[in-house]
């Protein structure tokens, strides 16, 4: 349990400390298929799956493994998937001040299979888009195209 | 038979009772690949497959397993696939007052294979889109992109 | 041979007789992967594959197995693939007066492999779009998205 | 219902009439992936899937489509899968007097998904082996190897 | 929690009551890919996956959905995977007195991914073979061949 | 070598002679996955892969195997992939006067793997679009959608 | 038709002329997935698929494309699949005097789909094994293992 | 180490010397799935994957293997993925003066799996688009469509 | 580097402490697809892949996550793949005194792709079998069958 | 051409120099999917594909990339596939004196597709087994099992 909620003791600042670099790059950077494991705050039942992150840098890029660390900080807490998605997007926005951020989370929820409904195969998808990635449908579509297969 | 039509004794209100939460989230929430089993009202022949649901919340989100429960309520009746699709979409609209709802149902119909035509491999796809998801082609396309594998 | 050309003795009216229902549904209905087998009228050589049908109902829906029957009526004749595609689309338009119809046929032609060229792997795709599905690129794109795996 | 039980009016003799040929061939002949649809006699619930047939001819071979017809005769009845498998094997043995016969049936049973247990993904496999294919483990293994993809 | 441990209130006798039939069949009957969900008794952490069951009948066959029910009885308890596998095999042996029984369980254990080791992709396979299926390597191999894709 | 360059002795006119039919069809006709084999004119090294052809007829359609023959005429020469693509598109335009033509060639080049770079897995894609298929982005997108698996 | 039966004018001797080489090799040589197209002699209906050939050389090996040519000689005739399989095996035995020969043919028969039975997905597998490959079960198994994916 | 950084001793000019040809072609040329291996400059940890390159020629085309060579020049250095992507795009722009260039790099980073985070399955995607491919969303989308499967 | 070699500070005893349970089970227990990452001791170049472990218990079973921990202890050192395989097998033998142990390691070696040979796709497989799993070919074969897909 | 035949200037001794290590390991070591490219000596036509190598060490193991180098030495010559397979096996036997060696080569031959026969999809498989891997059918089968996907 302690391990599953260790996200509370970590902050984005600690994690990103020193891993933000100046790089003359302004096109989308995507890290996809980051494994994620979390606990639903309503019934303490696990949900897990993958996180896909994209951002449009404004001359600042972050070490790639740091994006995975940010996922850890917010998934190792009692969560709902909608909030987890938003918190990851907000944390990246605060740290990098990028032109845009996109986060998509695809997860299986144990509550869908361990209780009465028993829908073994269903998956839940949530997304948060900020900045250019929210306003410009073409960027949004490009992100969605690139995270597929 | 009793089991197959038990949907008549259930209402969306009973099922959703207490499972609607306030959450500051306004991007699309999708639950895909919900297994579905129903009976065609014309020949009492089974049809079954998957339901994909998406909605754009207006600060209200629903417990994910409840969407699967709504599928159960309307599929455990004598149905036609077109009406089933619409009823699921309407029920979600009434319960959550979301900005938009999308429901896609993909099913195999026993009548396509147990009778003369014998088309073993064909599948039927129906959809209902309401609100923003009906009017805004970009949202619609985004939903269709995200439910594909 | 008699079996292969039995489509000449059948009409859409006979087949659809009594299988058109009033249903308050106006979104696209798709039946995909309907197996098809026909004979090329030029060399009496077989071609076969799959038919995908979509239509936008105007309050009238057809029993799903009837769409497969319409495919049978027109494929069990001496044909060319382009005409087969069009005839299926026209027959549905006449019977249902829908807002739009889309038919896509994907087939392997024996003439591509039994004669000199020997292109074992090639497939031919033809399509006919009528009404809204012809004029509105978004509906057309939605149909093409939904018939893909 | 009449269509589903039309197997009762057909006999193997009628179907095979004139389609048994002398051919100097004594190695295994396999027809695999024959689509099958039947009704469980206990609850009148459908089960369907594929039949794989192999036999070791003794100078007599049968027209291939006739093996599919034999599957039709016995599946278009009220059945249990174990008996269906055996009846197909027995019918081939009587008609061809082969050195050996093997029949494997893989099916999905609606009763596994429309009632309480709801195991959408499970499949049932039954087999009957007669003659050399029963006694000689190597022939048996060869048959099982060849029917796999 | 009550739902997850409801297996304690059920017995194999109750479940199989009246669903054992006399059928003249003595070859292997397999039900594969039965979805399973259970709780590890050491840390109350979920594990889930698929159960494959085979048995060699001695003139008695069981309704197929009953095998799925037996899986439910023993998985809806606090378990370890090794014991679950054995209990399913023992229950079938007692009920049907078959010539042999084989049970294979493939499962993902949450403890492998929610705690320190984080091996997201690993799966655990256990098996119990009784009677002929234990002693005769050829039957054993045949069972393993048939449960593979 | 003679075989590989026999394309020089053939002309589109000879090949299409008598295989152009009047057919009242004006939607896209596609033949995809036509196997192709050619020789790079710079190093006489083979390149091979698939050709996808689409055209929008103006009341004239061509026998499908003829499109494969046109591919043969131009690939059985010393070529570069860019020119091969264009020549196929031009030949179809001249012969059929269609409203539009699209040709996509995907090929593996031996020079990418037999020489120093050793990139075993890379493939080269070239395309030529003429008429409506060049000017109308929607037609172009529809063609690209339909040639994908 | 002339093209489809041109196999009658060709003999194995003509084809193999000069393409048999001395090579100190005595382990199995396999050429798999040779495309094949033929005509059933009973109804003049096409059947087509793949041929897999293996042989155990006795110091003589044959140019690989010649094995494909032998397939052509015997498939471009009126055939039944069982005889085609045997003729290919016999021709190789006569030409190379190998220690053993194995031929497996997997084919789809148009008669299974253009006539009443309509089993679109079934395939027929025949095999002929001669010499060591007939007598030694281990060689036979090795051949079957190597021709699988 | 010397091998891994040999890119420093090579220039695009040397590599392309004499391999730029005049060809009357102005549609997109794509070379996809070029294997790439590089070293991250921050921790000297490897990252590797695939590069996809597209350009819109202005009457000048480059020998295809040269594009692979340009990938080698810039990947055999200490790099970050964002900069590698940009350098490849810039080098092609300088050498060919094309109407547009697109470069997409998909890579696995060892730092994501050898250190604490242990995200074995995640991949990073970066892109640089220049000229027409940057400004025209339709060209951009076409490129992204063609590099997918 | 410290992280990559932390295996030296851990012992199997510490890790297994208290996680060995008495369970009346004597059939094979398999944990497959355990992700592994290690460093080759000759050039300090990474190799990584999957470990499959099987053992035949003698009334003692180990907590499943502990097998993954044993993989960590020996892979987080400077290694060669052959030795890593053997050390995992030996550690399990010492801790559990099982009737038999089997360990298979499949890995990609960076040295195969970052240096001259550039074989991007090759993988190395090593195995160690002890006790019954070494001496009894049937157990060995059963293990190999079960770890395959 | 020089590049394609550079294998003549290299010897196994040079390549293996110093890369043979003493390691207490006597179970099979396999390196599979080594890309290979060669030229057929009869028509100077390319053939290419994959090599799978296994050996049973006698206390001596070889650096893994050296096995790939041995493949290079013998494939970069004018060859026939049967001889290439044998030479690789012999070279490993001489260098390591192992208890057994197995080499399997799967290749596509350009001559099968650039000349008359045009069998685009066929592949040729050759193998050489020496020592224990030749005499012991179980080792042979184990090798063949492990090189399959």
Question: What does this protein structure show overall?
Answer:
Ten copies of one chain form a homodecamer. The N and C termini of chain A lie far apart (34 Å). The first copy, chain A, has one domain (2-147): GTP Cyclohydrolase I, domain 2. In chain A, the strands form two sheets. Chain A has a five-stranded mixed sheet with strand order 5-2-3-6-7, sandwiched between helices. A two-stranded antiparallel ribbon of chain A has the order 1-4. With 149 residues, chain A is α+β, with helices and mostly antiparallel strands. In chain A, helix 2 crosses helix 3. Chain A is globular and about 50 Å long. The first copy, chain A, has six helices and seven strands; from the N terminus they run αββββαβαβαβαα. In chain A, strand 2 and strand 3 form a beta hairpin. Chain A binds chain B through residues 42, 80-83, 85-86, 104, 109, 111-112, 115, 117, 119-129, 137, 140-141, 144-145, 148-149, and chain B through 21, 23-25, 27-35, 50, 57, 61, 63-65, 68-69, 72, 138, 141-142, 145-149. Strand 7 (123-131) of chain B pairs antiparallel with strand 2 of chain C. Chains A, B, C, D, E, F, G, H, I, J: It is an enzyme of class 3 (hydrolase). Chains A, B, C, D, E, F, G, H, I, J: Residues 2-147 form the GTP cyclohydrolase I domain. Chains A, B, C, D, E, F, G, H, I, J: Pathway: Cofactor biosynthesis; 7,8-dihydroneopterin triphosphate biosynthesis; 7,8-dihydroneopterin triphosphate from GTP: step 1/1.
């Amino acid at each position: 349990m302690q391990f599953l909620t260790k996200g509370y003791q970590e902050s984005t600042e600690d994690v990103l400390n020193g891993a933000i670099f100046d790089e003359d790059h302004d096109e989308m950077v995507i890290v996809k298929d980051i494994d994620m494991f979390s606990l639903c705050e309503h019934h303490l039942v696990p949900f897990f799956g993958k996180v896909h992150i994209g951002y449009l840098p404004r001359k600042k890029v972050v070490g790639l493994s740091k994006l995975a660390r940010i996922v850890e900080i917010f998934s190792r807490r009692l969560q709902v998937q909608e909030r987890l998605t938003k918190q990851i997007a907000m944390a990246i926005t605060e740290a990098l001040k990028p032109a845009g951020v996109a986060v998509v989370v695809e997860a299986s929820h144990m509550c869908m299979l361990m209780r009465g409904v028993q829908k073994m195969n269903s998956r839940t998808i949530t997304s948060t888009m900020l900045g250019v990635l929210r306003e410009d449908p073409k960027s949004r579509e490009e992100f969605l195209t690139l995270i597929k297969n």
